[in-house]
Amino acid sequence: MAELTGKVAIVTGGGSGIGRATAELFVDEGARVVIADVDAERGEETAEALGPAAAFKATDVADADAVQELVDFAVARFGGLHVMFNNAGISGSMHRSFLDDELHDFSRVMGVNLFGVMVGSQRAARHMAGHGGGSIINTSSIAAINAGGGVMTYRASKAAVIHFSTSIAVDLAEHGIRVNCIAPGHIATPMTSYDMTQVIRRTQPLQRHGSPVDVAQAVLYLASERSAQITGIVLPVDGGTTAGPPIPRREVRREPDREGSAGGG
């Protein structure tokens, strides 16, 4: 039997990148999936490609009423809600220097990246609490774990997602609701525009380039019964970046063969 047979899931930011890869994997594993996105064109195209097991609902996750409509839509369309993947996010200002950042986008970034996760978790949990529990997975980032320069509002929003998620994992456990975080790093999506090859070379021990499918596999694990005893964790999907930088390659010096070098013959 497929991992998510009989389950209904919502994937926010499901029209592209990690969200789309997860929606595709969820459907392959037997789930019925509601794809939520502000990009109607991409969201509708994704749902159409996935067939009758998927549906699209235009949603701005920073709007609490819209999120409630999303949950109501999933329940009405597919008969329930078992998995909530709060994945939608934006990067905001890309200023490299904090001194140059006017923080004009603070409210919008926090609205999508943090409030969207909070209200998405709450509205999903309100349904799950009365219907046997469920699994909530929230997308953070390695930028929330490792300190660094630039994108300070983004970093702050994703760090808050981690603390919020681990806190509600405690709060919601009595209802059979598990809450976990993923923290992707160096994954090529429409939101990542930097030179990933150079960054991976300098910061990631596992030199393999990760993909949205790699993250989707981690989300599937946290959504499925394989993780039934797991709640309140943060799972980096980053090739080891949060563990530490790669060890520089060293020349291996071999001692001379002393017996062979004695000569003779």
What does this structure look like?
With 265 residues, the protein is of the alpha/beta class. It has a single domain (8-262), classed as Rossmann fold, CATH 3.40.50.720. The protein is built from seven helices and seven strands; from the N terminus they run βαβαβαβαβαβααβ. It has a seven-stranded parallel beta sheet with strand order 3-2-1-4-5-6-7, sandwiched between helices. Helix 3 (64-78) runs parallel beside helix 4 (106-129) and helix 4 (106-129) runs parallel beside helix 5. The longest helix is centred in the middle third of the chain and has 24 residues, at 106-129. It is globular and about 55 Å long. The termini are far apart. The relative contact order is 0.14.
Name of the CATH homologous superfamily: NAD(P)-binding Rossmann-like Domain
Major sheet: arrangement of strands: 3-2-1-4-5-6-7
Radius of gyration: 22 Å
In N-to-C order, the SSE pattern is EHEHEHEHEHEHHE
- Sketch the major β-sheet: 7 strands, parallel
Q: What's the N-to-C terminus distance?
A: 71 Å
Q: How many beta strands in the DSSP annotation? A: 7
- The CATH class, by name, is Alpha Beta
Q: What amount of the residues lies in strands?
A: 5-15%
Which CATH architecture would you pick? 3-Layer(aba) Sandwich
Low-pLDDT parts are: 260-265
By CATH, the topology is Rossmann fold
What is the count of structural domains? 1
Q: Total number of helical segments? A: 7
Gross morphology: globular
**Class from secondary-structure proportions:** alpha/beta
How confident is the prediction overall: mean pLDDT?
93
Helix content: 25-40%
